[in-house]
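Field log, afternoon session.

UNIT: design team B
ACTIVITY: writing a sequence onto a fixed backbone
BACKBONE:
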């Protein structure tokens, strides 16, 4: 069974050529299944500004927020970033939090540059610092290779160092795009590690094993997005400017501006997501009758915990769910995005699902009050 050309056209009209091209054409979808995907597209990223997370109650980050950040400058941009990030700093890992702080400093150092214009500047500044760190590592390895008289390793390290050319600090986004698209010959950190390991496997012997251990210890210090804030910015600005479809959520369109993709990644924990009420891992349906809009971080935090058990441990989320559903109910008439979706049907069916999951625990006062308010929503 082939997917309907009308369905493909409809999904492409949503502005997501990448997803329709690589996914929809490989999978036959009925109209109902398309509507379920549409929920993810319209709610998970394209929601109106200000939709509250169904779990923590704080504002989620929608694609429209990313577009707004592109035009902000200096302190205004930093304040907007912090308005999301300050919701929960624990939602970031150490490197992404340090990268956010580093990026904010670069923004404040260039107050006349917009959120879009700052990207190549941030890339160059972070890349230059990263190159210094890499150069120190390569020098250590080169000295050790010379002591071992390993011509293969010395030649390889020299070739890797030669690829780290210094870019013009005033490079434009288009020029940076051309550079990033044409640097396929450059070997990345994991490739360097693998190549040095291959050389070590050939040349290490009982007399040289300690030196090779020092070489591997040194080469492992090469900056990466998991251990260095500059490398984090370099990686994700590069992926955004190259419009890498593996950047993250499949609903991001390759037609989006690079800055949209970057800010989406920078504030990823607070991006709105379609949370499965009944977890997908226990055969919960992937359709809008089983979705609540939450932060990505809140979504991941719950994992596969049974919904009723999760509510009993965190009864405060019940009021947040009501606030979330009320927002959807009250916003549908003023939002073009929500008007394209059968919001009434969604509210009716998600209410039925929540009631079915919690009714057997209605002896719990918080759940009893929630079910009463839910019935009157």
């Amino acid at each position: 069974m082939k997917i309907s050309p009308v369905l493909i056209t409809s999904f492409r009209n949503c502005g997501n050529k990448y997803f329709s091209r690589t996914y929809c054409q490989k999978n036959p979808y009925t109209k109902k299944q398309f509507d379920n995907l549409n929920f993810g597209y319209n709610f998970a990223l394209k929601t109106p500004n200000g939709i509250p997370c169904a779990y923590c109650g704080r504002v989620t980050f929608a694609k429209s927020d990313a577009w707004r950040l592109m035009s902000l400058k200096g302190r205004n941009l930093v304040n907007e970033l912090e308005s999301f990030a300050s919701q929960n700093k624990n939602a970031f890992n150490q490197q992404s939090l340090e990268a956010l702080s580093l990026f904010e400093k670069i923004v404040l150092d260039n107050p006349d540059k917009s959120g879009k214009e700052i990207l190549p500047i941030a890339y160059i500044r972070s890349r230059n610092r990263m190159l210094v760190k890499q150069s120190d590592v390569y020098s250590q390895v080169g000295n050790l290779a010379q002591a071992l008289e390993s011509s293969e390793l010395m030649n390889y390290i020299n070739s890797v160092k030669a690829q780290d050319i210094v870019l013009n600090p005033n490079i434009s986004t288009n020029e940076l795009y051309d550079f990033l698209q044409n640097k396929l010959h450059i070997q990345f950190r994991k490739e360097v590690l693998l190549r040095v390991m291959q050389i070590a496997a050939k040349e290490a012997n009982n007399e040289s094993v300690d030196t090779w251990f020092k070489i591997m210890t040194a080469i492992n210090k090469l900056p990466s997005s998991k251990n260095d804030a500059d490398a984090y910015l370099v990686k994700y600005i590069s992926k955004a400017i190259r419009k890498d479809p593996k950047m993250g959520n499949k609903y991001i369109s390759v037609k989006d501006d690079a800055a949209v993709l970057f800010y989406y990644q920078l504030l990823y924990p607070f991006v709105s997501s379609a949370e499965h009420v009944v977890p997908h891992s226990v055969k919960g349906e992937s359709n809008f009758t089983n979705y609540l809009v939450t932060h990505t971080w809140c979504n991941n935090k719950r994992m596969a915990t049974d919904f009723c058990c999760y509510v009993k441990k965190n009864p405060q989320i019940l009021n947040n769910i009501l606030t979330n559903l009320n927002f959807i109910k009250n916003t549908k008439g003023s939002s073009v995005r929500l008007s394209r979706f059968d919001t009434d049907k969604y509210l009716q069916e998600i209410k039925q699902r929540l009631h079915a999951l919690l009714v057997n625990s209605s002896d719990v006062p918080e759940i009893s009050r929630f079910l009463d308010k839910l019935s009157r929503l």
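LOG NOTE: The beta strands are 272-276, 291-295.
NEXT ACTIVITY: expression trials, pending approval
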